[in-house]
Amino acid sequence: MDLTPTILAKILLPKTPMILKIALFNTLSLSENASKQDLRTEITVAIIRSMISRRVTLGRAQRFGLKNSGIKGRMWIAKLTLPAPEDVEGPREALVRAIQELGDGTETYTLPENRSVEGEWTGYRSGVDKNTPLPEISEKEKYTRMMSEVKSKVTVLYFHGGAYCMMDPSSYRPVTSHLAKLTQGRCFSVRYRLAPQNPFPAAILDGLVAYLSLLSPPAGAFHEAVPPMNIVFAGDSAGGNLALVLLQTILTLRRVGISTVSFHGKDIPLDLPAGLSLQSPWCDIALTLPSIHRNANLDYLNPPTQSRLPSYPPDDVWPTKPPRVEIYTEASTLAHPLVSPLATRSELWRGAPPIYMGLGNEGLEDEIAVVARRLHSAGVTVIFDGYEGMPHCFPMIFQGSIASKHCFTTWSNFCMEAIEGKVVKRETGTWMKAFTNPPAFDEVELSQISAVTDAVADQGLLEARDKAMKLEHDLQETWREQQAKSRL
Length: 488
Fold this sequence. Notes:
The protein is built from 14 helices and twelve strands. It has helices at residues 5-12, 16-27, 39-52, 58-65, 91-102, 139-147, 173-183, 202-215, 238-255, 291-294, 365-377, 394-397, 402-419, 454-487; strands at 75-82, 117-124, 155-159, 186-191, 231-236, 260-263, 266-269, 275-279, 355-360, 382-387, 428-432, 441-445. The mean pLDDT is 94.
């Protein structure tokens, strides 16, 4: 979304005292962040944190994240609606089987309806300036024009971030078009259903339908069938979570002997993609590990409150009826592997394709590192790139910085290497040092990438789930009592 000068002024003017204070202390190397963040980074993080902390309703936050500033410049966008599958034993039933296989039977959730899935084909458009609008032609013709500029086999299936409750493919066009440019390929960016209106597992079902639609195009699709070895799942934050749990869904189904899914009347093989390319993936919906507090000064993500309840003022979107503790899911599923990848045992990742993980010194650092270690111990090829002092999803925020340029390059190179089968297995991950130009790196053994043990991670997640379940039960009891009184 674009911020006009007027909107930008309204945001920044009240924060002038804070900005001046940070500028003074960072310049004098007296601020808490000065050893890891330059002035621009520290100020930007503080401004974003203050914006996120504003007391606005979730409905308003959703509407702001969905604002569409139009399509112009060096990108092709071709919008597409994928029809809902009507197969009796189709994607929805396969997803339920995976949820049951990975759970203990106590989980409760709302089974989503089969719906059509919207998305955007995105490619790089050369030979135009940044203000050139798309030509007024059909979406199919836009796709054809886009494909005339695609030079590689890379097809990125992209899942946007936004805590599963905000943002949209239209918000992510600068990201997906940049990935398309760097890979010389194309992205299909999925408009998956958002919570709290559509909680777990609606987004996973939409992601599965999108993937199957790439493998076997339904009626009305623009594209030809894409071989799985040419597809890379990609995403950031909640989108990174979605990519991981979609992969685990496929791995689980294959593990229990389900090798095909009925999709628009055809049995489609459940083949694995070439790889996963992730930025700051949200691996622990409950946010239980130490870095969510340890890195709070370096990140704009707010640690969970003591009550764990989201701080949005009430509106017709939130809280839900009956109330929940978590926006995305019911409390009973917090420790389910298809909600929090942190809950996935190492052996369940066996057979996964190569996975790239980029991150900063952010609130999610520990959970990402623990999942990376578990993937590595399962024999999965893991490319782990950390960036000292950088906040959550920093490549999207500081696209001109040295760290972001390096991250986008490694992110896109991974996609190209994955479809060529050329990702080299490593025993170490890297952390790019702050303030280095050219970049300098420290290497860390993947087996030692986090000081948080598996036992500590598992225990923390289970304790958070149990506390959330009790709180959710109490909230729902109070709500039911209020409903009963209102009917008298």
